Fold this protein.
Amino acid sequence: MNETRRFVALDAFRGLTIAAMILVNTPGSWRYVYSPLRHAEWHGCTPTDLVFPFFLFIVGVAMRFSFKKFEYKLTKEAFLKLLKRTLLIFAVGLFLNAFPFHRSLADLRILGVLQRIALAYGFAAVLSLVLKPKQIIIAIVVLLFGYWGLLWGLGGIDPYGLETNIVRTIDLKILGENHIWHGHGIAFDPEGLMSTLPAIVTALLGYLVGFQIQSRKNGSYLWQLLAYGIIGILLGLLWHLVFPINKALWTSSFVLYTAGFAIVLLTCFIWLIDVKDVKTWAHPLIVFGMNPLFVYSLSIIWVKMIIYVVKIPLQDDTSITLYAWLYQHIFAPLFGNMNGSMLFALAHVIVFWLVSLILYKRKIFIKI
């Protein structure tokens, strides 16, 4: 199996993840969303909660192959390139938070999805180039248990509660209430500063899986990967008994549980595409996976445009957002509230797949 074909499996997995990110982010109405397409309210894990850690895991796997150009050493040149990309991704995330610039800087959310990707990538990249694989395993153990200890020891009588967790306390002190997400009804950021620590581990686990794939000696490595994935899931469930699986806190049990599923799914992709050479089905996913962050960012800009910028006038001299108009006047009447909301999101997936296809056919690959 050559490296090019192995990357095809990874690109397909990445494409599936980007499609899922757009799907769960753009329902026609948040009042009408099927439960698997919602995040868990607090503790627990739905299929939607798997999407973001899958992407970070993929980032880690890709690092193992892309860092060959650095000879797996942290030189000054390598560090500057990593720093430049980290800052770029973070800056794009800030831009998306600010767009379309209808709020003052005093209320700008600092963190977010791309910001977490940037920070997790930056720190995981440095660690992976400084440490050997066995040392990375030690770092993972220290980070996961250290994070558990910090939350348990500094979170008061309800260390894993929404209002009392130390992640929220630190964000409030450092960032301030106005610069934090309020989606849970209070100031709490699911991409908080402290919870970035276990997110780094998600990327490092991906890096180790990339190392395992790259250094395989025979076909049995797929069985090894599958076993690692199942062990990760089981360990996550076991840890959940004392440290709940929670995406918003990115708990250590959540890291192991989601990484386990990511390993299992990647193993299936490699088996189908590389071993069985059955890859026609994966082409649409590969198209999505070639410009992932650009297409994701474009989808955010589009959604914000049709919510905050483009308004449709009504007969009573009021107006409605284009986003709401499309759902209420096209999708809901044709398909009903629940199915219309889901098909609205699916339509966005198709539109941005067509954008990806145009870029793919023109061999335009925009790296953010």
Observations:
- The two ends are 29 Å apart (CA to CA).
- The beta strands are 311-313, 319-321.
- The mean pLDDT is 94.
- Residues 3-361 form one domain.
